[in-house]
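Milestone 3.1: sequence recovery, worked example.
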């Protein structure tokens, strides 16, 4: 099929990128069949190839005066509808394949928001975990010493992602400002007192829940009384749990790379505050939660298992995978269905493998794919860019209402597009086609560039 062989032949080792491309191309085949112009213009071959890939070294010195060298990237994937927009990830797993998959997904996610943003992604195999603030600062300054040449408010506006939070954004912004001699909206996710937006830290998690609420509404249901499995313990998971509590649901789990916690009694506001302090201030591990709340259980990660017990051993109605890519395999998906889960809203990017998606769809699960369900984060990043351009700050209620409306519109767009192309209720098809058509029509308008 168009594009898939082109990608696998050219980049045979980039498995994550192949996975992302395959999902999109399989969904948009009806569009390609109905629009021969897209094939004639070689749209698939063009859209899977980044406009620009930057790779550079990042040398830095630790507190013991030892020199380290990390590898860094910025994938400027597509700018047909606006400047490149997408996060920076600092994690040992970062490689070209993962960042290309994330950038490719970002193109269509950003298109769904209806805001003028292209798609990009970047990061480094640097691990901020266990590093001092001074070590993180030195790394960020060295990273930005190269990246600053390639970004700008009308060119490429990075944000945070895994391993890049408020601390890292601050150090990156400070170095950019020094090098460029400009105070400009070059990064989103900034602190409030120097150009950030209210609701930005909450946005991805809140948006994921808003999208799930829209899916539930199609069956005349709400979150009231529902038990929800959540993975991850960063910003996305924390604020997913917060919004679930606001809407009357009960989150019962969270996780990190060491394992997960299940709290049968449910995670209330007091417990969530403790999780936020544990992860955001102490930078601790989820296992420490059970020391304060012994009624909960901690299950360490067992990599020899062919499934994740988080998705198998606990009854629930809703699941919010909010950790990382490919955290739900086919067996996990079947276990979720068997345990009564019928709503899955992805806070992470591509957390479910292809087989798992098929299982969800075959079992009529209300399944919100990441490029639609977690678009809240980049939506509020876009709103932050708008506020920076106008030199003003909107109040919290206004930003939250705009976010809620954007997620409602994304849900509506996915529903209507899926219906139009003969797959009613299939949010994967709806999201992929709606985002794809907007981007490729802009590409065709702008010529072969």
């Amino acid at each position: 099929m168009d594009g898939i062989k082109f990608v696998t032949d050219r980049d045979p080792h980039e498995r994550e990128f192949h996975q992302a491309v395959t999902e999109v191309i399989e969904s948009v085949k009806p569009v390609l069949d109905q629009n021969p112009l897209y094939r004639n213009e070689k749209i698939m071959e063009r859209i899977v190839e980044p406009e620009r890939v930057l790779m550079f070294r990042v040398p830095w010195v630790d507190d013991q005066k030892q020199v380290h060298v990390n590898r860094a990237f910025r994938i400027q994937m597509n700018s047909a509808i606006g400047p490149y927009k997408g996060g920076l990830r600092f994690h040992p797993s970062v490689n070209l394949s993962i960042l290309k998959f994330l950038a490719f997904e970002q193109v269509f996610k950003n298109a769904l928001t209806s805001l003028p943003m292209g798609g990009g992604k970047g990061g480094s195999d640097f691990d901020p975990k266990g590093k001092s603030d001074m070590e993180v600062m030195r790394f960020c300054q060295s990273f930005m010493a190269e990246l600053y040449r390639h970004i700008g408010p009308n060119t490429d506006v990075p944000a945070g992602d895994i391993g890049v939070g408020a601390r890292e954004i601050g150090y990156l912004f400070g170095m950019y400002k020094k090098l460029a001699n400009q105070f400009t909206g070059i990064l989103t996710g900034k602190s409030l007192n120097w150009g950030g937006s209210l609701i930005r830290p909450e946005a991805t998690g809140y948006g994921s829940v808003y999208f799930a609420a829209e899916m539930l509404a199609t069956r005349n249901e709400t979150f009231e009384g529902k038990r929800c499995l959540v993975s991850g313990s960063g910003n996305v998971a924390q604020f997913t749990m917060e919004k679930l509590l606001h809407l009357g649901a009960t989150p019962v789990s969270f996780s990190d790379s060491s394992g997960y916690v299940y709290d049968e009694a449910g995670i209330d506001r007091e417990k969530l505050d403790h999780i936020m302090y544990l992860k955001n201030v102490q930078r601790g591990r989820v296992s420490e939660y059970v020391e304060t709340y012994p009624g909960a259980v901690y299950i360490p990660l067992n990599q020899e298992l062919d499934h994740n017990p988080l998705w198998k051993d606990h009854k629930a109605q809703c699941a919010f995978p909010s950790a990382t890519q490919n955290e739900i395999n086919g067996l996990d998906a079947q276990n979720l269905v068997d345990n009564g889960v019928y709503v899955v809203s992805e806070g992470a990017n591509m957390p479910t493998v292809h087989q798992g998606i098929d299982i969800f769809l075959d079992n009529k699960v209300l399944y919100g794919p990441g490029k639609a369900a977690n678009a809240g984060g980049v939506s509020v990043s876009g709103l932050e860019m708008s506020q920076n351009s106008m030199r003003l700050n909107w109040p919290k209620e206004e930003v939250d209402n705009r976010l809620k409306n954007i997620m409602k519109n994304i849900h509506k767009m996915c529903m209507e597009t899926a219906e139009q192309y003969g797959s009613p209720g299939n949010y994967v098809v709806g999201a992929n086609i709606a985002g794809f058509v907007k981007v490729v029509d802009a590409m065709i308008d702008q010529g072969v560039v």
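The longest strand covers residues 67-78. The chain has a mean pLDDT of 96.
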